[in-house]
Amino acid sequence: MKNIKGKKVLFLAVRFFQYEKAIAQRLSELGAEVDFYDERPSNSNFAKGVIRFNKKIYQSIINRYYRSIIDEIQNKKYDYFLLIKGEAVPAYFLEKVRLLNPEIEMIYYNFDPLKEYPVLISNLKYFDKKFTFERNDALRYGLSFRPLFYLNEYKHLASDISDLNYDIIFIGSAHTDRYIVGENVRSIAEKLKLKCFFYYYAMGRIAFRLRKIVDKELKQFDNKKLSFTTLSHHEIIDYYRRAKSVLDINKPFQDGLTIRTFEVLASGRKLITTNSDITNYPFYNPNNIFIIDRTHIKLDRDFFNSEFEKIEDEVLYMMSLDSFIECLFVKDQNEYWNSFVKNNK
After folding, report:
1. Same domain, 142 and 93
2. Which terminus of the chain is more solvent-facing, meaning fewer CB atoms within 10 Å of its CB: N or C?
3. Model's pTM, two decimal places?
């Protein structure tokens, strides 16, 4: 990508299962010089909770952290500033980045609904390009729409279908009604003699216990089915290698597609999803994607008997990390992604 090669990029992102490292690495491979900083001063469960629910009591630590970043970057010149999410980033830091680099292009991306993180809205004004994975947020706040992506490791699975010994697998964090939906799917699947593997995880024991007190959905959770260890991409890929289909359960208030959606389909595995908005995407194919109603779950045994139908190369590229980077840094893909929305949407 000509726009990136030889350019200097200041990149801040929340940690999200090593995807931020994959983005930084790919930018470097494409010829950019990348300085990456975690947007949080700490990734302890306490720090994450305080930043999300009452950032003011953590502000002195945040300020100290961002002053140290400013000290490190003040004599450098950047062509681009990329921020993904930005829960902890103070406005004065964004102003300082622009002051130090008057010609910089400031790019923002968010992979969560803004209704869940309204504090992020006030910082949108500092950016030249603003992207979201949530189509409704794009319309409401005047943002560009760009879904998430898959890593190439998943794409390499598409030709490996020799040992499919699970009909359905689920791997995901424990939040909202995921456990209730997941266990209902498991129960129905087992009645249909489908073999399942379900892996629920939480970021920490104390944090999960506290959430369980206030979240009525989590009160039903059987702790024996919960792990406090996240799986690596290699471990997830190994489970995908043995699966016919993967269950994806989006948050009830979220229309944007999870990153798991793209990884599953790029892997050549079928997708079972609670997100009906997937019909508005170029890769929607009812042979590959089975939509369930989270309140009235039904499965069709025939769905598991047919083979995955290959996704067109052009569409597969548009789903990729390279396309994601190209959209953020080179050319907006708003028109492409919105051209598949049904008229009745």
Report:
1. yes
2. C
3. 0.91
Quote the DSSP letter at residue 158. Answer: G
Q: Please, are residues 201 and 226 in contact by the beta-carbon 8 Å criterion?
A: yes
Q: Residue 297 belongs to a domain with what CATH number?
A: 3.40.50
For residue 345, give both structure tokens: 């949407």
Could you tell me if residue 177 is inside a domain?
A: yes
Cα gap 259→268, rounded to integer Å = 15
Q: Which range of residues forms the domain containing residue 54?
A: 8-148+320-338
Q: Residue 123's CB: how many other CB atoms inside 10 A?
A: 17
10-residue block means of pLDDT along the chain (345 residues)? 90 93 97 96 71 75 96 97 96 97 98 90 97 96 97 89 89 81 94 94 59 58 70 90 95 93 97 97 98 96 95 98 98 96 68
Do 168 and 308 fall within a single domain? yes
Q: Residue 29, Cβ neighbours under 10 Å: how many?
A: 10
The answer for residues whose C-beta is within 8 angstroms of residue 319's C-beta and 6 or more apart is 147, 149, 150, 262, 265, 266, 283, 311
Which residue in this structure is represented by tokens 């949108």? 124
> What is the spatial distance between Cα 195 and Cα 245, in angstroms, rounded to a whole number?
11
Instruction: Look at residue 13 and give its three-state secondary structure.
Output: strand
Q: Token pair for residue 53?
A: 């629910």
How many other C-beta atoms lie within 10 A of the C-beta of residue 91?
A: 11
Q: What is the DSSP pairing of strand 226-227 with strand 129-132? A: unpaired
